[in-house]
Amino acid sequence: MNAVPRKVAVIGLGIMGLPMAVNLLKAGHPVTGFNRSQGKIDQLVSAGGVGASGTAEAVKDADVIITMVPDSPDIEAVVSGPDGVFANARKGAYWVDCSTIRPDVSVQLAAAARKAGIKALDAPVSGGETGAIEGNLSIMVGGETADVEAVRPVLEAIGSTVVHVGPSGSGQTVKATNQLIVAGTIELLAEALVFLEAHSVDTQAAIKVLAGGLAGSRVLDRKAASMIARKFEPGFRVDLHHKDLGIVTAAAREAGVAIPLGAMAAQLMGAVRAQGHGSLDHSALMLLVERLSGRSAS
Amino acid sequence: MNAVPRKVAVIGLGIMGLPMAVNLLKAGHPVTGFNRSQGKIDQLVSAGGVGASGTAEAVKDADVIITMVPDSPDIEAVVSGPDGVFANARKGAYWVDCSTIRPDVSVQLAAAARKAGIKALDAPVSGGETGAIEGNLSIMVGGETADVEAVRPVLEAIGSTVVHVGPSGSGQTVKATNQLIVAGTIELLAEALVFLEAHSVDTQAAIKVLAGGLAGSRVLDRKAASMIARKFEPGFRVDLHHKDLGIVTAAAREAGVAIPLGAMAAQLMGAVRAQGHGSLDHSALMLLVERLSGRSAS
Question: Which InterPro entries does the entry mention (chains A, B) (predicted)?
């Protein structure tokens, strides 16, 4: 990587944030990080980063501040208050929120950032833990064009597809559709696999031929084998996808758009969670299809 | 292609069958074809094939008989009766049905073929008109292993992915899941696109970034641009996909498998058809999402 080094702060060193921070370090950017649990900070330090005692210390000298937290209330807590990003970042710094949150909250927070003299982008990602580790996330960016281009070299250290999709909030809107499509595609694959198993078809052979035709998808490539093996370690947890589908259905309602399959997928994800599988990978939708079909082992 | 030439008969020279026959000719196999409309036979002859006056004449000297017709009753008509495949094919010939029909009918017809001394395979395809023209169809084959291997060189002239998925009928079962996944994936994409348009997001940019992440699919790659442009020329007609989804839902019922998203997709495909769009491409599901969302031009 030949990008000009930028001082980067990363707030939220979880399943996604930590490998993203590590890839920023690998690309030559100094990274200061903060996380609520010290263990993750220690892992960042082991990788060559600097640990901070709080958000304020992490962001005070940063050129680019990346936040990666689970939900809208979490990000509001990180940016607001006396220890928050807005009160402590340099004027002119870039705040890039990679969290998946409600588009309307994203728009409000970007406006608040601008009032504090901070440039704001929403930049949620797709590609999961594997994409975060491999540095080939898809990043959907909302905000001003000049700001997107200014931080592009930094984003390209963590993602292979970095696309400016519109003004503030647009990144979150596109991420919402990503989550709609992914949930629905996993559910369709789960239904297909249970159907094939019920008909005693060779599912491995079936997957190979399905992948070669119009039914092929990244979900099929990445999830089918583990679903057949009933391995549901996350990956991306049902709890988080359930949260995201709440965003999708609310945003569709607000826009007056009917999303019959997306809404059904949201219901099914909620049902998987209600059955106690919230901490499994979202491909655990298959457990629900099995249960609905009387083919559940449990 | 270096395959040993086999005398091939192709019954059904439609949107799929004709380009498949042409690719067989290109691979060096002599092809005799029959179709109800003479125009298609003339096109086959122009490409170097031989036209027949009926099924009986087409199949009488063939090593391999390929049928490609729309539905279960059509194939029953082609194979049965004094002018049909079973009464006229050589003993030991291979009958390869590339039509998409009910798995149970496929099993019955294969048994009838064996009684007539004919080796039967079900070999439905995925990849659409483009795949048929380019010779890179995905072919899901049900039947005896030895029979599959015997005709594999012929199938490889029309498809790039040829997979033996199980005994007679298995090809149709896998094709049913293919059609479930494809219909659902198109509908999810349609919902996503209408959602993005309602939020005034740059759909071209959004597609680029969605394609790079876990939401990526062959449907998105092949259909998104034409859906955004509202171009719905087939391709694969709503009428045919509606027929296929009837097969899927019936087969799921028989196996006691719940397919909530597949069943919803079947309902929506039926609704698009009921609104008079049966002859459009299946991506016309988008017209229904628009109508449900009050965003229809008409």
Answer: 3-OH-isobutyrate_DH-rel_CS, 6-PGluconate_DH-like_C_sf, 6PGD_dom2, 6PGDH_NADP-bd, HIBADH-like_NADP-bd, HIBADH-related, NAD(P)-bd_dom_sf, Tartro_sem_red
Give the integer Cα–Cα distance in Å for B21 and A27: 53
Tokens of A193: 């696999």
Angle at the Cα of A96 (from A91 to A97), degrees rounded to 5?
A: 125
DSSP-based three-state secondary structure for A173: helix
Q: List, as ranges, residues 118-147 from B with C-beta within 8 Å of A.
A: 125-128, 131, 137-140
Alpha-carbon distances, residue B243 vs A130, B73, B238 (angstroms): 39, 12, 9
Check if the beta carbon of residue B177 is closer than 8 Å to that of residue A196. yes
* Count of CA atoms in the C-beta half-sphere (13 A) of A50: 16
Burial class (CB in 10 A: 0-12, 13-18, 19+), B152: middle
Test the B interface: residue of A100, A130, A152, A174 with most B CBs within 10 Å = A174
Q: How confident is the model at residue A1 (pLDDT cuts 50, 70, 90)?
A: very low
Q: Chain A neighbours among B 94-113 (CB < 8 Å)?
A: 103
Alpha helix segments (H runs only) across A71-169 = 72-79, 85-88, 103-115, 128-134, 145-155
Q: What is the DSSP letter of A217?
A: B
Q: Are strands A31-34 and A8-11 parallel, antiparallel or unpaired?
A: parallel
Q: For A149-187, how does the pLDDT look when each residue is reduced to its tens digit (9 = 90+)?
A: 999 999 999 999 999 999 999 999 999 999 999 999 999
- Which pLDDT tens digit goes with each residue over B27-56? 999 999 999 999 999 999 999 999 999 999
Residues of B with a catalytic annotation lie at: 175
Identify which of B161, B184, B292 has the shortest CB distance to residue A209: B161
Cα A280 from Cα A222, distance rounded (Å): 16
Judge if ipTM > 0.90: yes
Kindly list the structural domains of chain B, giving each domain's residue range(s) and its CATH number in brackets, ordered by start: 8-167 (3.40.50.720), 173-292 (1.10.1040.10)
DSSP assignment, residue A5?
A: P
Measure the CA–CA gap between B65 and A277, rounded to whole angstroms: 50
Q: CB contact, 8 Å: A196 with chain B? A: yes
CB A91 within 8 A of CB A118: yes
Is residue B116 within 8 A of residue B89, CB to CB? The reply is yes
